Amino acid sequence: MADRLRGRTLLVTGSTGIAAATAVRAATEGARVFVISRAADHAAALADRVAGGWAAADLTDESAVDAAVRAAMDHLGRIDAAFSAAGGSGRRFGDGPIHELTAAAWEATAGLNLRTQVLVCGRVIRAMREQALDADGGRGSLLLLGSVTATAPVPEWFGTHAYATAKGALTALMTSLAATYIADRIRVNLLVPSLTATPMAARAAADARILAYAARKQPLAGPMLDPDEVAKAALFFLSDESRAVTGQSLAVDGGWSIVSTGAELT
């Protein structure tokens, strides 16, 4: 399985957690990597780890996305694969149950988790459509990052409805993009991870009750899924191993979506 991305280029949005694990694993398997992140220090540090390029950009800003994707093209020459993984919790904006949700909290959370994906997808697909076909007859693979909260909710512990809605919308985005751009030989797929050991999961990691619940809910992963487990699945979609796969969602969740277990709040 080594070197399965040899000679391929990869754009990754996000610079910690699953995005970072995927960038590192891709680089070890031969990819040339370009990182885009809001935090310049994080982007630069990850780019240094993978001997790649980087750009700092607010991915909710259309002009910033344009500039960052152009920088990626300048550095890489072409974008064979892109992992649109940037996003995050909306709790700091006031995300929560919808009966408590303000318009401002919705807009900020959706901006971070949906607007970013829409803008990145648009610019990356625009670049991919202009590329020549690769040796396998494709122009690129685009992978989005969803969340198990949109498909197998646990409101007792993860009752953030704006985040779940934004992540759920990515299924529709992925499906419609895959159908539209298959004629251009561009593939689009979605990963759906469960509770993963990332900076975003710090609240859960500090709560013994949530960890105990997660250990029961995702027994193949334990309390926290290792980001590298998600990265392994990401590389399948980003490599030519999945050259015949598009319009698909894959849950990497340790059993979360099929295991029934009570939240046991007390």
What is the topological layout?
Blueprint: E1 9-13, H1 17-28, E2 32-37, H2 40-49, E3 53-56, H3 62-76, E4 81-84, H4 103-129, E5 140-145, H5 155-158, H6 161-181, E6 186-193, H7 202-205, H8 208-217, H9 227-238, E7 249-252
Helix pairs in contact: 1-9, 3-4, 4-6
- Beta-strand proportion: 5-15%
- What integer value in Å does the Rg equal? 18 Å
Strands of the widest sheet, in order across it, are 3-2-1-4-5-6-7
Query: Mean pLDDT, rounded to whole units?
Result: 95
Helical amount: 40-55%
Largest sheet: 7 strands, parallel
Shape: globular
Count of helices? 9
- What is the succession of H and E elements? EHEHEHEHEHHEHHHE
Please identify the structural class as seen in this structure: alpha/beta
First and last CA, distance: 46 Å
* Quantity of strands, as a count: 7
Describe this structure in words.
The protein is of the alpha/beta class. 43% of the residues lie in helices and 14% in strands. It is built from nine helices and seven strands. A seven-stranded parallel β-sheet has the order 3-2-1-4-5-6-7, sandwiched between helices. Helix 1 packs across helix 9 and helix 3 packs parallel to helix 4. The longest helix is centred in the middle third of the chain and has 27 residues. The model has no long low-confidence stretch (mean pLDDT 95).
